[in-house]
Amino acid sequence: MSIMQLNGGSVVAMVGKDCVGIATDMRLGNQALGISSEFQRVFPLTDRIYYGLPGLATDVATLRERFRYRVNMYTIKEEREIEPETFAHLVSSTLYEHRFGPYFVEPVIAGLSKTPSGGLKPFIAATDLIGCLNFAKDFVVAGTASEKLFGVAEGLWEPDLEPEDLFETISQTLMNAVDRDAYSGWGCTVHILTKDQVITRTLKARMD
């Protein structure tokens, strides 16, 4: 068994029309033993950036605090809010620093980037456990159900989804994928980021 599968959990991020979504399941386990159905893997960084940390639960807690510290230092030094692309490279460099004794997490980043014209465009990215970045224009996945997530997302995702349609698509993708994975599930939390607001919804799912 891989250490990445010890605690389970999966995250998916998707691009819509001027919006972006990120969703995670709620299960924390010790392999097949369930420990909690309220484990948080997706965290807000700013009003325009959310990130998910599927992987080893202890490293999730460690990296959450490390990212919070480094982003606060960036904000103080630069006197401006960090952009999603900059945060993605910060995540990458943080993980690569520890490549010889890596954190066992695969971060997923979702946000809205400022454009030169003053608008906002969706941004998603994911990295492996040593910080190799993967940018995408449709969706990114990570976690123990990633193979199933890829399959379902390929079938359901369409370009230019409105926020409500994006919520429906990302929810159905995650719920159907984790139903086929023993290490993920037990409900989902979905965040949809638009230029005006962040919509957060919690979904109930199978508990077996």
Automatic annotation (TrEMBL):
<dbReference type="InterPro" id="IPR023333">
    <property type="entry name" value="Proteasome_suB-type"/>
</dbReference>
<comment type="subunit">
    <text>The 26S proteasome consists of a 20S proteasome core and two 19S regulatory subunits. The 20S proteasome core is composed of 28 subunits that are arranged in four stacked rings, resulting in a barrel-shaped structure. The two end rings are each formed by seven alpha subunits, and the two central rings are each formed by seven beta subunits. The catalytic chamber with the active sites is on the inside of the barrel.</text>
</comment>
<dbReference type="InterPro" id="IPR033811">
    <property type="entry name" value="Proteasome_beta_3"/>
</dbReference>
<dbReference type="GO" id="GO:0043161">
    <property type="term" value="P:proteasome-mediated ubiquitin-dependent protein catabolic process"/>
</dbReference>
<dbReference type="GO" id="GO:0019774">
    <property type="term" value="C:proteasome core complex, beta-subunit complex"/>
</dbReference>
<dbReference type="InterPro" id="IPR029055">
    <property type="entry name" value="Ntn_hydrolases_N"/>
</dbReference>
<protein>
    <submittedName>
        <fullName>20S proteasome subunit beta 3</fullName>
    </submittedName>
</protein>
<dbReference type="InterPro" id="IPR001353">
    <property type="entry name" value="Proteasome_sua/b"/>
</dbReference>
<dbReference type="Pfam" id="PF00227">
    <property type="entry name" value="Proteasome"/>
</dbReference>
<keyword id="KW-0963">Cytoplasm</keyword>
<keyword id="KW-0539">Nucleus</keyword>
<dbReference type="GO" id="GO:0005737">
    <property type="term" value="C:cytoplasm"/>
</dbReference>
<keyword id="KW-0647">Proteasome</keyword>
<dbReference type="GO" id="GO:0005634">
    <property type="term" value="C:nucleus"/>
</dbReference>
